[in-house]
């Protein structure tokens, strides 16, 4: 491939957009529309890997495919994201693989700029900002939690002001297909965190992963507390699995949620025993949950992210659910 400045008279490479979908009737059509509206100058196809959904996702996907010859469907009976991605990659006819989720919307020029960055950096995978955007007060609060250091810890792809640089991982990703195949594709035993684990294998094989704020994807966060808790619990569980398989990847950011949960629970238990036993020393344990509560409430009301008043009032609950569910999943781990 040529660099962006050398493309006069040179064909752009074809790209295969791979989209795993399961129960995405609310967002699928918008996600596909943003892909088709990219105005990419080369050949483009969209491969939707459809899982056994309980909503109208299969019917919507079929209608989209019937209306546009660039869209193809593959069946994903396993209903797991890494299996869907591997099926899509196997079906792809082009050398560049663009991963898109059913609840994500590419911003204008995303694919074109990603192909340019693959050329400019020599990376095997490039990605950008996960721009979480909510439409209800609860979703707004979840979106803010994603974007703040107090929420998900400040990973580069959550922060719009992060500079372009090599990275451990990126959101979604635009890949060279040959590099994906060389490392064996996505690990289908990793039901979550499969993107981080794949990028780890790419890096250990000497490939570069590149983050650029030029690339942005609008992400639609979970819309209910129950869905958020489930998502974060599973994320914590699978992050523990990544560290079990690759102990050298453990760091403070990943250990903070389980340590927070242990501190809150341990302090609460100690405080309760202090009340029962009339022990002033044990009652000091209440300082741990009180301190945590003060931190998330104070952090919520000084957060610089723009949000409605209704979202700001919900933010402490969202932060607590994010930290504690993530921590519980990490501590429990995956049944072996």
Beta-strand segment tally: 9
Named CATH architecture of the largest domain: Alpha-Beta Complex
Biggest sheet layout: 9 strands, mixed
Q: In CATH, what is the class of the largest domain?
A: Alpha Beta
Please trace the helix and strand order, writing H or E for each element.
Answer: EHEHEHEEHEHHEEHHEHHHHH
Q: Helix count?
A: 13
User: How large is the share of residues in beta strands?
Assistant: 15-25%
Number of domains: 2
What is the CATH superfamily label of the largest domain?
Answer: Spore Coat Polysaccharide Biosynthesis Protein SpsA, Chain A
Query: Helix/strand/pairing class, anyone?
Result: alpha/beta
Looking at how many chains there are and whether they match, the oligomeric state comes to single chain
Please estimate the helix content.
40-55%
Low-confidence stretches: 1-6
Rounded mean pLDDT is 91
CATH topology type of the largest domain: Spore Coat Polysaccharide Biosynthesis Protein SpsA, Chain A
Structure explained in plain terms:
With 336 residues, the chain is of the alpha/beta class. It folds into two domains: 220 residues, Spore Coat Polysaccharide Biosynthesis Protein SpsA, Chain A (Alpha-Beta Complex), CATH 3.90.550.10; 88 residues, no CATH class. Helices cover 49% and strands 16% of the residues. The protein is built from 13 helices and nine strands. Strands 1, 2, 3, 4, 5, 6, 7, 8 and 9 form a nine-stranded mixed beta sheet that branches. α9 runs parallel beside α13 and α12 packs across α13.
């Amino acid at each position: 491939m040529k660099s962006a400045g050398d493309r006069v008279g040179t064909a752009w490479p074809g790209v295969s957009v791979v989209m795993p979908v399961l129960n995405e009737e609310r967002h699928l059509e918008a996600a596909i529309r943003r892909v088709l509206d990219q105005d990419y100058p080369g050949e483009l196809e969209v491969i939707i890997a459809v899982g056994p959904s309980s909503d109208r996702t299969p019917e919507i996907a079929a209608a989209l495919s019937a209306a546009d010859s660039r869209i193809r469907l593959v069946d994903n009976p396993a209903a797991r994201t890494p299996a869907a991605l591997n099926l899509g990659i196997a079906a792809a006819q082009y050398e560049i693989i663009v991963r898109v989720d059913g609840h994500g919307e590419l911003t204008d020029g995303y694919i074109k700029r990603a192909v340019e960055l693959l050329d400019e950096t020599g990376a095997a995978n490039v990605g950008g900002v996960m721009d979480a955007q909510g439409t209800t007060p609860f979703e707004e609060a979840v979106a803010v939690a994603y974007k703040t250091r107090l929420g998900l810890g400040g990973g580069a792809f959550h922060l719009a002001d992060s500079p372009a640089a090599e990275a451990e991982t990126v959101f979604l990703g635009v890949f060279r297909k040959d590099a994906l195949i060389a490392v064996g594709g996505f690990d289908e035993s990793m039901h979550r965190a499969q993107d981080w684990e794949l990028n780890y294998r790419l890096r250990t094989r000497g490939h570069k992963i590149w983050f650029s704020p030029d690339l942005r994807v609008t992400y639609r966060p979970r819309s209910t507390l129950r869905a958020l808790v489930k998502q974060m619990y599973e994320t914590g569980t699978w992050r523990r699995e990544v560290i079990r398989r690759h102990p050298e990847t453990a760091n403070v950011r990943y250990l903070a949620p389980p340590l927070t949960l242990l501190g809150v629970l341990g302090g609460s238990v100690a405080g309760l025993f202090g009340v029962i036993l009339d022990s002033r020393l044990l009652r000091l344990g209440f300082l741990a949950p009180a301190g945590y509560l003060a931190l998330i409430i104070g952090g919520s009301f000084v957060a610089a992210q723009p949000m409605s008043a209704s979202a700001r009032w919900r933010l402490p609950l969202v932060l607590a659910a994010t930290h504690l569910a993530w921590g519980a999943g990490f501590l429990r781990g995956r049944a072996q």
